[in-house]
Each structure stands twice: as C-alpha cells, then as structure tokens.
C-alpha cells in the first residue's frame, strides 16, 4: 500500500525518503509517549513508598505539604 | 494572462502621439499583471514608468492587490490578521501546508486545526517544512501539559526529537489553536505555542510550546498522524498594521 501525503490541496504518493521519515517520526513519538508514561508510573510508585513509610495517605500528605 | 493584464506601465514624453493602446493601458486603473515576475519586468524599461512609492498592482496569480512602499511590495488592506488558507483533508496521515504559505509577508502566523480520527486515535506530531520537505533534524524541543475532566494531569515532552510531539489524537473533536513565531525570517529560531483540546473519554485540554533549534526559513508546517484523520486547517498571517 502506498503512503500518501497531502500538500496544500494536492494528495500524492510519498517518496521513499518521506515514508522513512514519517515512519521514524511516528515510532519516535510513540516511544517518547511510552517513556513519559513509564516515568510517571515510576514516580507515583516511589511517592507511594514514601507515603507508606510515613503512614500517610496521599490526601494527608497533600494537606501537610500544602 | 487575463484580458486586462499588461506587460508594461508606460511613461510618456511631451509631444508624444498616443495610440489607442497607450490610452487603454493608461486608463486601466491599477495595472494588472500575470504574476510578480511580470510586475517587476513592467517598470523601469524604455518607455516604462520608474517604480516608485505609491505604485499599485494587481496579481492574477494570487488575486492580490499590492502597493509599493519605496522598498518592497506590500499587501493592500492588510490589517492585523489576514486570512491565507483553509484546507480540508480526508483520511490522511500526513498533512502539509502548500509551498510558501509562510513567507516574508508576515513574521507571525495563527493556525487552527480541527480533526477526527477515521477509526482510532494515535500519536500526533508537527514539523516545520520548507518547499523541499519536512525538517526532520533531531532538534525539536518543548512540552505539552494539560488536564482531564477528572483532574488527571497530562504531560509529554519533546527533547531533541525529529518532530514536536502533540500527544495522542482521540475519539473526536481534536483541535489546536497555534501561534507560529518567526517561521520564515531565519534570523532566529522559530517557536510556537498554543492550546489544544480533544474529546476523549476524559475530555482533555492543555497548552503547549516548543521550538526547532535550527534557524531555517520555514514555508509551512507538516502534521503527522499515526492513524488517518479527517479535518480542516486554517492559516492567517499577522501584520503589524
């Protein structure tokens, strides 16, 4: 299946170079998103470990720290 | 070239006998040219007026009326925000502006884009573009932050990526309102900032901003979607007066 690009009002087939760049860009964006999600999960887990050690809930910690 | 288009703007000397053709051109009001090349070739030659401040012109190629300010041709009627283009796209994964939509005519631009995924959402990115193609150096930086209706924070960063990451298109009603600063002048980096919304199950709204760390004379933008989308974009040039 050919990959298309719309430039202005014109739809045409992508060149091989354009296809390669498009594929790399989308793959990079999805990897970037996964990394951000993984980092957020890791941060939340680390925070929970600290809360557990202190014996506080998240709401209590928020109230304490402002 | 249309019936009213001319290839010269005459100047007459004392005692010269004028022909009907001379009078037709003289009485045509604002001279009409096929394009900017024909316009520029119509002044300063033998028997032609010298181009000077205050001269008007109409270009058939772009349907534009212009005046000469003594140094350059300027659009007539430009006042603040000027509509440049509205383009619809159907089931596309890569949508690029027409060539030369960004130019020396305006320093900054407003862009409004609305789109719906044909089936499922996916990653969504933006790149600067020249008439030769998308700018894909790993120098896009910036970030996007926002929140959902439940208060959940949404954040994604672009740290030297090959495109600016706009997150994920979802279900329907994705939109962005974007200001692009200095894309063409090439005297400093192009930057952009804007707001976005998508109508996912948690209704996310957010703001974003970024830059391309290489000075380039960009003539447009390109949006890349992991999955096909259908929508419209509109582009406006921002004039100083």
Overview of this protein structure:
The complex is a heterodimer of chains A (66) and B (241). Chain A contains 2 helices and 2 strands. Chain A has 66 residues and is of the alpha+beta class. Chain A has one domain. Chain A has a two-stranded antiparallel sheet with strand order 1-2. The longest helix of chain A has 39 residues. Chain B has 2 domains: 56 residues, no CATH class; 158 residues, Jelly Rolls (Sandwich), CATH 2.60.120. In chain B, the strands form 2 sheets. In chain B, strands 5, 6, 7, 8, 9, 10, 11, 12, 13, 14 and 15 form an 11-stranded antiparallel β-sheet that branches. The two termini of chain B are 32 Å apart. The model of chain B has no long low-confidence stretch (mean pLDDT 89). The chains are: A alpha+beta (66), B mainly beta (241). At the A-B interface, β1 and α1 of A face β5, β7, β8, β10 and β11 of B.
Annotate the secondary structure layout.
The complex is a heterodimer of chains A (66) and B (241).
Chain A lengths: L3 E4 L2 E4 L2 H39 L3 H8 L1
Antiparallel strand pairs in A: 1-2
Chain B lengths: L19 H7 L5 E2 L2 H5 L15 E4 L4 E5 L4 E3 L5 E16 L11 E10 L5 E8 L2 E2 L5 E8 L5 E9 L2 E5 L5 E8 L9 E8 L5 E9 L7 E19 L3
Parallel strand pairs in B: 1-2
Antiparallel strand pairs in B: 2-3, 3-4, 5-15, 6-12, 6-15, 7-8, 7-11, 7-15, 9-10, 9-14, 12-13, 13-14
């Amino acid at each position: 299946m050919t990959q298309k690009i719309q430039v202005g009002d014109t739809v045409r087939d992508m060149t091989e170079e354009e296809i390669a760049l498009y594929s790399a860009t989308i793959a990079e964006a999805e990897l970037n998103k996964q990394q951000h999600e993984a980092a957020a999960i890791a941060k939340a887990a680390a925070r929970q470990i600290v809360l557990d050690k202190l014996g506080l809930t998240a709401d209590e910690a928020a109230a304490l720290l402002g | 070239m249309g019936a009213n288009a001319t290839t010269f703007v005459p100047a007459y000397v004392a005692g010269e006998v004028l022909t009907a053709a001379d009078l037709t051109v003289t009485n045509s009001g604002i001279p009409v040219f096929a394009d900017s090349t024909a316009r520029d070739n119509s002044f300063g030659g033998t028997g032609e007026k010298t181009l000077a401040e205050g001269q008007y012109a109409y270009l058939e190629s772009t349907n534009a009326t212009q005046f000469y300010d003594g140094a350059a041709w300027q659009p007539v009627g430009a006042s603040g925000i000027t509509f440049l283009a509205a383009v619809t796209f159907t089931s596309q994964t890569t949508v690029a502006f027409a060539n030369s939509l960004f130019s020396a005519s305006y320093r900054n631009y407003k862009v409004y884009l609305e789109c719906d995924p044909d089936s499922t959402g996916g990653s969504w990115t933006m790149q600067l573009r020249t008439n030769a193609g998308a700018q894909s150096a790993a120098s896009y930086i910036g970030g996007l932050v926002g929140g959902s209706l439940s208060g959940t924070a949404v954040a994604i960063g672009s740290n030297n990526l090959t495109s600016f990451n706009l997150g994920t298109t979802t279900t329907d009603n994705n939109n962005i309102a974007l200001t692009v600063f200095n894309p063409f002048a090439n005297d400093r980096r192009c930057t952009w900032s804007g707001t976005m919304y998508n109508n996912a199950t948690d209704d996310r709204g957010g703001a974003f901003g970024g830059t391309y760390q290489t000075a380039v004379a960009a003539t447009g933008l390109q949006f890349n979607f992991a999955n096909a989308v259908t929508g419209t974009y509109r582009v406006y040039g921002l004039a100083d007066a």
